[in-house]
Amino acid sequence: MNAIQKISITEVDTSALEKYIMSINLRIDGLSFVIQNIDKKTVHMESFEWLNATNWDKSLQNLTVLFKEHDLLKLSFQKHYIFIQSTDSLLIPASMFKPSKAINLYNQYLGLSNHKVFTKDINHSGSKIILAFGIDQRVEKLISAHYKNIEWLHFSQTLITHSIKNATNEQELTLQFENNYFEVVALKNHKLEAHNYFTFSSSEEFMFNLLSFIKQIGLDIKILHIKLQGKITKASSLQVLIEKYVINVSLEQGNISKEAAFNDLIRATNENR
What we know:
CATH topology of the domain at 168-256: Nucleotidyltransferase, domain 5
Number of strands: 14
Oligomer: single chain
Order of helices and strands: EEEEHEEHEEHEHEEEHEHEH
CATH architecture of the domain at 168-256: 2-Layer Sandwich
Helix content: 25-40%
CATH superfamily of the domain at 168-256: Protein of unknown function DUF3822, C-terminal domain
Strand order of the largest sheet: 1-4-3-2-5-9
Shape: globular
Strand content: 35-45%
Number of helices: 7
Distance between the termini: 30 Å
CATH class of the domain at 168-256: Alpha Beta
Structural class: alpha/beta
């Protein structure tokens, strides 16, 4: 199984694994990983994708092969951060949250009873909200048996936190694009207003979902600012379409570089260390 992208800056010293941490971005349709040293300097990156993977069954098969055969993925480093990148998460107000109820809420609202469920706190306006997220139990079991010292995280936690931290406008949306869905974080006066995911198979469906979301949460399209990131390129058809309705649209600069596939993973890793 060959990587679709590989960037090796310096060789990993396999005789001193305690000097490194590994971060893995885990998706239904692929995996990417970054190895950093104790100074948070990136030394190695790789990305893999599997075609036509629409559920965790095919991913489980590919992950089993990859962890068994890949020389670097075989190793157990000082720390392993596993970032799940999926639509399988929900926000729970701290006032409603009890650890014993997290699994029931996750199953009830997402309809997934075969997932291992985790929770993380997101600090927000002096209080906190809880992100509940999960992954297929078979995948979790495979990884937990393979590595020691694992911290399970979800990309939505980083996206929401980063969006709040970097908000500069009265009303703002951050759109994170993936292969067949987009994730949206809505802010009013630098405070989280809403967070959701939408699948789409055409530009018309995408725009309908976006405009419906904007209307539903009461944002003013005349003053709204939208930031685009993820799997979208400058002046893409989706960006041009958005600009027909919203004046203030910008593409995050990190998405233009050669290493775009790893930017979010590196940022998320450093923010969680």
